[in-house]
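Q: What changes when zinc ion is included in the input?
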Amino acid sequence: MVKYFIYCRKSSEDEERQVLSIEAQLTELREYAKQQGLFIVREYYESKTAKEPGREVFNEMLGEIEKGVASGILAWNPDRLARNSIDGGKVIYFVDTQKIVALKFPTFWFEATPQGKFMLSVAFGQAKYYTDNLRENILRGIRQKIRRGELSAKAPIGYFNEPRLRTIEPDKKTFRKVKEGLEAFATGQFTLTGIQRKMFSLGLVGKTGKPLALASVEHILTNPFYYGHFEYRGEVHAGSHKPMISKKLFDQIQSALVANGKPRKKRGPKNFQFLGFATCGICGYAITAERHIKKSGLKFIYYRCTHKSKTISCTENRFLREEVLTEQVKNLCQKVSLPDEWREKYLARLESEQSESRHSSNLFAQNLRDSISAIKEKLERLTDAYLAEALELAEYQERKNVLMAEKKTMEERLSDFERKGNHWLELMRNWIIEANQALNLTKQENLSGMRDFLVSIGSNRRLAAGMLLAEFKNPWNFLAEMPAQAHAFGAGAVNSEANQIWWTYGESNPDLAHAMGA
Ligand SMILES: [Zn+2]
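A: The predicted holo structure follows.
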């Protein structure tokens, strides 16, 4: 009897308001399980969005399925299971390898046939298309707001978000107080903790009624928003809100900060995206990051060699701006990514490859099964001969042991093959999808995503003469070595390169050789 897990998911996103709550999903699914006589062994639910891979509960559930605790999933709709290609691919892969033998949805009919799997991947794909679109719409909205000079984020202290007009307006209660605090600090007579106390005495308090944290005070003192600009993604834009102070006063505050403020250094990966990401190309020692605040109040982050080596006197004295490094990271990601047309072309090809490979794998497996049953027959005849006293015990045992060993070898080969017979196709599929997603990362300017991606597919990232270099694992290196124009021209112009990658990937894979009966 197939054992099922129930899986429910609800995200807090607006677009999913129409989706049933977890409780409602659970009630519906329990009812459905009762009607259909499904044997439920556990219920899983989580409130994380499915558009990024790596939901904890989801992964835990797949882990349990891998262990064989259950082999079926009951969920409200395929879009509850996967909204990104990795999770979707995992589910389909589990179906392919029969770790999952049943998927039930009250709103969607699924059967583990090629057609059923195709329909399922279409359903997953639609869910992904939907999130991609949503993300694009949100970004478009933000860009429009920036163009109109409105900040899309939360108003800083002294201002409030006007909900009807969606603008940022001075807050009558705090505007004058913040202004007084800023003017006081500009005189140069306050330290950071001094101005913290001053602001408290003016009535500027944190959420709990305590003095503002030093980090918040520092943020107020360095926020260009107060003189009419605002920062979005490290870029300064002109705002449409009423400025609180002049740029001149802001500059005085910055000098006062340098003199008296001793602003605390912010640390951590959130502030320095590429800390620990690369080494120095000359001495091989770590690259460090530094923050500089210019007189304009703009913050810049630089990366440079730590010069820690005692044996090599490193000649690399270049400072690389974070923006420059980001651009290079982006270029590198683009170099190892696949355009959408390629993705489609490759996946289509993979599809036909898969059916061909299935055919030859079936033959291979069938041959093994035939050999195993032939050995079983021999064993039976051997036993008959022994029972008929045609054989001595010693001779019987000797012959039997040889056959048993042979049978064991065959059985192992078969189970090994059944486990990973078409593994390379899955690897290839994942690779295509990952390479295509890399392009999305660059389009979204997803810094941490690009960083993690490059770390996962290569090694020896180094900065030499202001250039970021890296080595890539197979098959990413093929993409990296491809001429740049091939990436730009798209599918038509690059057929031969595409073919080369395709075959090298397939042929360099030992599983393929195995599947072909080697
Ligand atoms: Zn160095």
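Observations recorded in class: Residues 263-270, 488-495, 507-518 have pLDDT under 50 and may be disordered.
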